[in-house]
Amino acid sequence: MKKLLTLALVAAMLTATGITAFAVDYPGGTQNTEITTSVEPTFTVTVPADTTVPFNALSTEFGSVKLESARLAPNKAVQVTVTSDYNLNNSVDNTAVIPYSLKAGNDTVDADFAAMFLNAGEKVDLTIDITQAAWDAAAAGDYSDTVTFNIAYVDAEQ
Amino acid sequence: MKKIAVMLLAVLMFCVPCMTAFAAPTEQKGATISTTVPAKCDITFISVGGRIEEGGTDMDGTEEFDRRSVHTFHIIPDEGKEIDKVLFGGEDVTSQVKDGYFTTPALTTDMTLEVIYKDAGTPVEPVSEPTSKPDTSKPAATSTVSSAPVQPSANTPASTTPSTPSTDTAKTGDTTAAIVFVIAAVTTVSAAFIIVLAKRRKETE
């Protein structure tokens, strides 16, 4: 019984590791052996940190979305999109909001916005814009909103 | 039975490292944007040459008001002054001042209310009482009442013309020269009388 178990264990170990050596005898000629390996893509993206907008500020630096380091496959890219309702919501009264916009340079960040990064070091600077009219219309209180950055590994042609 | 369980566990342990970890296709990171809208707004009052009131209360220096509240201020120039210009937040709102009252828009941020005064353009009333410091160097002719109006110095900032209404206008009631003239005449007459008396005494002796 012991021997049987030992045999079963050895068989299981060989199967589990998946290493199988096939020795084939050929009578003659050549045989190609393909060596394959795989390098997994790795990348690091930094996104803006939590930011406090000063009262009555029309434009505030939000920070950058940056591809810090990257080892991407050819024709692949890192895509960053942004999800937000673009309203700062009052902590007490959820009907009281301060509308804002995110700008990437001169471009407005909206649902269609997608930043594509191919090389490490590439970045997009973001600013938070609030109009004076929006400030003037705002009731007193604390406001906040969460901006979600969606980071994806995609085909570069996208 | 125990051994079988150990064996199965060992088999499982070998199988586990062979599993491939598939990363999620999309990763999400969040950042919070926050701000605070203050409940109060400050108004700084600048009024050299007059005063500003609200509901009978003097507004002086910097006062605090509720955000989005509306206020009506009464601008009261000092005597001899009148409103030249009213600036609210740097904007000229002189045309919005009615009968000395200015109503603010809803306050949304800290502001400055600055009133600039000029000398009033009304004729000067005759002054019956002499000034406290008579100017004896003036000729007697200046003691007559002047009816010429005081000319306003238009567009002069309040900061360069502080309010001194009494000294600017009360130059018309100077009678000192006339008094000096009367005293001199009385003295002369008295001296002449004494001389005459002295001569008569000599004659009688």
Describe this structure in words.
- The complex is a heterodimer of chains A (158) and B (205).
- Chain A is mainly beta.
- Chain A has two helices and eleven strands; from the N terminus they run αββββββββββαβ.
- In chain A, strand 5 and strand 6 form a beta hairpin.
- Chain B has 205 residues and is of the alpha+beta class.
- In chain B, the strands form two sheets. Chain B has a five-stranded mixed sheet, with no helix packed on it. In chain B, strands 4-3-6-9 form a four-stranded antiparallel sheet, with no helix packed on it.
- The model of chain B is unreliable at 15-24 and 124-173 (pLDDT under 50).
- At the A-B interface, helix 1, strand 2 and strand 11 of A face helix 1 and strand 1 of B.
- Strand 2 of chain A pairs parallel with strand 1 (26-37) of chain B.
* N-end to C-end Cα span of chain A: 61 Å
Estimate percent helicity of chain B. 10-25%
Annotated CATH homologous superfamily of chain A: Fimbrial-type adhesion domain
Question: Helix fraction of chain A?
Answer: 10-25%
Helix-strand pattern of chain B: HEEEEEEEEEEHH
What Rg of chain B do the Cα atoms give?
43 Å
Pairing-aware structural class of the strands and helices of chain B? alpha+beta
CATH architecture of chain A: Sandwich
Q: Which blocks of ≥5 consecutive residues of chain A have pLDDT under 50?
A: none
Distance between the termini of chain B: 173 Å
Multimerization state: heterodimer
Kindly estimate the percentage of residues of chain B that lie in beta strands according to DSSP. 25-35%
Strand order of the main beta sheet of chain B, please?
Answer: 5-2-10-7-8
Derived structural class of chain A: mainly beta
List the helices and strands and how they pair.
The complex is a heterodimer of chains A (158) and B (205).
Chain A: H1 2-17, E1 42-46, E2 51-53, E3 59-71, E4 76-83, E5 87-90, E6 97-99, E7 101-104, E8 107-109, E9 114-117, E10 123-129, H2 132-137, E11 141-155
Antiparallel strand pairs in A: 1-3, 3-10, 4-9, 4-11, 5-6, 5-11, 7-8, 7-10
Chain B: H1 2-15, E1 26-37, E2 40-48, E3 50-54, E4 57-58, E5 62-66, E6 72-77, E7 81-88, E8 91-92, E9 101-103, E10 111-119, H2 165-169, H3 176-204
Parallel strand pairs in B: 2-10
Antiparallel strand pairs in B: 2-5, 3-4, 3-6, 6-9, 7-8, 7-10
